[in-house]
Amino acid sequence: MEDVSNILQFLRPEGFLPAALVLLLTYVLARVVEGFFERLGTRFASYRITLHQTKAILRLVLYLGGLGAATSLVFQLSQEALLALGGILAVAVGIALRDLVASIIAGITILIDKPFSVGDRITYGGVYGEVVEIGLRAVRLVTLDDNLVTIPNSKFLTDIVASGNAGELDMLVQMDFFVDLGEDIGVAKRIVREALASSRFTYLKKPWTIVISEVQQSDFVAVRLRAKVYVLDLAYEKALETDVTERVLEAFRQAGIKGPAVRHRAA
């Protein structure tokens, strides 16, 4: 009770309304900044990743500044108040807000260390998607089937996360094609190569390759042609896969190249 009374003596009730207005203004301003950078990213696609990163940093600065301003309005921050509040709030934060503070610190660490950035395609815990927000508390991903996934920032300090494009606009995409062991592998490789080279979504300024290997699954043995190619813009990842797959399958059909024969298990 003594600790509570120590806090109350530094409260400024007349500052509650101005503090609420400051927080509201901070939220509105952050939304305006987000909308502005979203429009810029749409207009200047080649700078979209950089603009998303700038947006995340500005939003974090706005929220921290608004929170600090609101706190100064609610509390009379004399030297004695700072000492008293510092000790009391340190205990409260350590007990009640431990996870939240850890996530805020982790969010700042992510923005500084940049294991990934807003706009990156990352894989975490079996979830693959595009980073749309690095907030004070959590990172939000949008998966390719349009699900929003929220992950606490603190998770990224200890767990493994893979970034597909590492801040770049282009990204390596991998596609597998299977043909029967008896088919002409040279012709099959040429078909895949031509499909990659002719797709409008392929980024030809970076090297691409086709790796051939024999694979054995539970119900078939086949030759696998693994195409590794960069997509021009990570937004076209699935468009590239669809375009190349359609071209390859149609060319396989015309060339008479068959897929692996499935071995049916005995009952």
Observed structural traits:
single chain; 267 residues; alpha+beta; SH3 type barrels; Alpha-Beta Plaits; 3 domains; five-stranded antiparallel sheet; three-stranded antiparallel sheet; 8 helices; 50% helix; elongated
Commentary on this structure:
It is a single chain. This protein has 267 residues and is an alpha+beta fold. It has three domains: 2-96, no CATH class; 121-163, SH3 type barrels; 171-255, Alpha-Beta Plaits (2-Layer Sandwich), CATH 3.30.70.100. 50% of the residues lie in helices and 20% in strands. The chain has helices at residues 2-8, 16-43, 48-74, 79-96, 98-113, 155-158, 185-198, 237-255, and strands spanning 121-124, 127-134, 138-143, 148-152, 161-163, 171-179, 209-216, 221-231. The protein has a five-stranded antiparallel β-sheet with strand order 4-3-2-1-5, covered by helices on one side. A hairpin with a 2-residue loop joins strand 1 and strand 2. Helix 2 packs antiparallel against helix 3 and helix 7 (185-198) packs antiparallel against helix 8. The longest helix has 28 residues, at 16-43. The radius of gyration is 27 Å and the shape is elongated. It starts with a helix and ends in a 12-residue tail after the last helix. The model has no long low-confidence stretch (mean pLDDT 82).
Q: What order do the helices and strands come in, and which of them pair?
A:
Elements: H1 2-8, H2 16-43, H3 48-74, H4 79-96, H5 98-113, E1 121-124, E2 127-134, E3 138-143, E4 148-152, H6 155-158, E5 161-163, E6 171-179, H7 185-198, E7 209-216, E8 221-231, H8 237-255
Antiparallel strand pairs: 1-2, 1-5, 2-3, 3-4, 6-8, 7-8
